[in-house]
Amino acid sequence: MRDTDLVVALGCRFSEFTTKRWTLVPPEADLVHVDIAPVELGRIYPPRVGLASDAAALPPLPAPSETVSSAAPAEVVQRLADRDGLVLIQDVHTFGHWILRHVGFDRARSHYGSPGGAMAWGLPAAMGMALARPEERVVALSGDGSFWMVAQDFETCVRERIPVVNLVVNNFAYGNTRDRQRLAHDERYSGVFLDNPDFAAFARMLGGYGARVTRDTDLPATLDDVLAQPGPSIIDIVQDPMEGLASGLTPPKAH
Prior knowledge:
It contains eight helices and nine strands. It is of the alpha/beta class. This is Thiamine pyrophosphate-binding protein.
């Protein structure tokens, strides 16, 4: 924050606590300040642009212009499956159907999954595997819904130096439930879409390594870069919110 050249503040009144006793905002930074109370604009810091507005009335941020298909992660997972000295831990996620259909595993003790279908199993299992088999690199493959249930454990990875690589296939949804609501309940969606942050920034905030991918072509090189890092990391693989089941797979109809 102290090194930034632009601050966009939505509803922030620049109190003692939010500014670390008024030391966080660089005096040379341009400030765009939005607050519902006009009296707050310029009261502490003079803004370059001041907007008296309800932040909720602002237009939403644009969605990513490009996203990653499910075919590209399936290809890199096959690369991981073929790589000696690497263990893949598979969480329960919508992308799992693509792995079952398109990825083959030939090396013993190289692929582990949750047979009971328990979401959020991936990262904790990968942490235990990394501690038990430190001579091998452990990669956890999760969806964004399952990863969020245990995301706080990434801080443990950083603190305890557990070098788990997390591939988060991020479709901003509980994909399995979304597809059931789409196909079996006439698109009556309820509680299935997520407003996720940037998982790569989340990793960096906690002291790990983070990378974000929004194009198929960038994924292989990003994976190589992340695997070269010594510590825990997250690759945020951004997908369309409706990306999900492979073709020909449909959940049962509701009765």
